[in-house]
Write a structure and sequence with these properties.
Elements lengths: L1 E4 L34 E2 L18 H11 L8 E2 L6 H4 L5 H9 L4 H7 L5 H24 L1 E4 L20 H11 L15 E5 L6 H6 L6 E8 L12 E5 L5 H19 L3 E5 L17 H16 L5 E4 L8 H8 L1 H12 L3
Parallel strand pairs: 2-3, 2-4, 4-9, 5-6, 5-8, 6-7, 8-9
Antiparallel strand pairs: 1-7
Helix pairs in contact: 1-10, 5-6, 8-9, 9-11
Bound molecules: zinc ion.
Organism: Gadus morhua (Atlantic cod)
GO molecular function, one term: hydrolase activity
Keywords: Hydrolase
Length: 349
């Protein structure tokens, strides 16, 4: 296991975060009738059409919500619907040229191959709803303490290019937007907006996110990933832990437990964005690690409890997960919502 820290002078913390502080720039279409339940953010347009036989499991997004409803983990009244994120908001991370070309379809073949997706209007719409979903989850989390999207975690996208199934970096856009937003009168606990910790436990390093925030002390990036997995050329997060192929539950969990509390206590974020990628699972097509369902559940439970116990709001995204058995994969992705529901109930949120 390799651990590398990127040292940074962190700003001092002056005020406790508050769940009541919220800037609802991305109104939900429906305010939940069941205000007691865990907020789950979902949009039917998180999906788009792909050519037959495409290897990305696009069908997982609606199935995540479907299995949560079927198993009565959440009710329809708990579902919040995001809006399409504007180009202007995307520009807080991505270059104007990249956003303009992506939205209008001026994307070269080579660039499309690098992202893994053929360009389509549906793809653009999907990415904009997905990013809107992560933003809404963060805003609802700031108000309610916790919220979980049924998509998100496109952490390989850089300001001027997409990569590895990621076109728009939803985590980065959300973190930057919340920091920059001037429409949040009660938001700023330090000069320059909220402090955001991005906990990225997808098996692939969050290279785009790490690059975007490398010189931004208000956003701390923490990534635990497979040493030999994509991307080959890794960026420097504030804290990177790379794990060898075949890592199992116990070592994985002890790695999370070793680092997360210290990061929370030293950085003291106003919000945690949690990428709960399920591709460290032993049956994942791309993962190379050996976590079980129980291991993922324990991981998510630990992260959520550790953050919530400190009074810090947390928003979750599902991150990566790859399997030709899309139903099985969707259940795997729903682990984080199940763990969040348990924490929500146990903590009386
Ligand atoms: Zn991944």
């Amino acid at each position: 296991m390799k651990i590398s820290y990127m040292r940074r002078v962190l700003p001092s913390f002056s005020k406790k975060p508050t769940f009541a502080s919220t800037c609802r720039a991305f109104h939900a279409e429906k305010v939940s009738a069941d205000s007691r339940g865990l907020p789950v953010v979902h949009h039917s347009r998180y999906v788009c059409d792909l050519p037959p036989g495409h290897r990305f499991p696009m069908g997982k997004f609606p199935r995540v919500l479907h299995c949560l409803l079927k198993d009565q983990i959440v009710s329809e009244q708990q579902v919040w619907t995001p809006e399409l994120v504007s180009e202007e908001v995307l520009n807080c991370v991505h270059t104007t040229e990249y956003v303009k070309n992506f939205v209008s379809g001026k994307v070269e073949e080579k660039a499309q191959r690098r992202t893994g997706f053929p360009w389509s209007k549906g793809l653009v719409r999907r990415c904009r709803y997905e990013t809107g979903g992560t933003l809404l989850a963060a805003e609802v989390a700031l108000e309610r303490g916790m919220a979980c999207s049924t998509a998100g975690g496109t952490h390989h996208a850089f300001p001027d290019r997409g990569s590895g199934f990621c076109l728009i970096n939803d985590l980065a856009v959300t973190a930057r937007y919340l920091r920059n937003s001037s429409s949040c009168p009660s938001s700023s606990s330090i000069a320059g907006g909220r402090k955001v910790l991005i906990v990225d436990l997808d098996v692939h390093q969050g290279d785009g996110t790490a690059f975007i925030f490398k010189d931004e002390p208000g956003v701390l990036t923490f990534s635990i990933h497979g040493e030999k997995n994509f991307p080959l050329h890794k960026q420097r997060s504030d804290l990177d832990v790379s794990l060898p192929d075949g890592t199992e539950d116990r070592q994985y969990l002890s790695t999370v437990e070793e680092h997360l509390p210290g990061l929370l206590d030293s950085f003291r974020p106003d919000l945690v964005l949690y990428d709960a990628g399920v591709d460290p699972h032993t049956e994942d097509d791309l993962g190379r690690l050996r976590l079980t369902d129980a291991g993922l559940y324990q991981r998510d439970l630990y992260v959520l409890k550790t953050v919530v116990a400190r009074g810090i709001p947390i928003a979750t995204v599902i991150g990566g997960g790859y399997s030709s058995d899309v139903d099985k994969l969707a259940v795997r992705h729903s682990i984080v919502h199940r763990a969040a529901t348990q924490v929500w109930k146990e903590c009386g949120m």
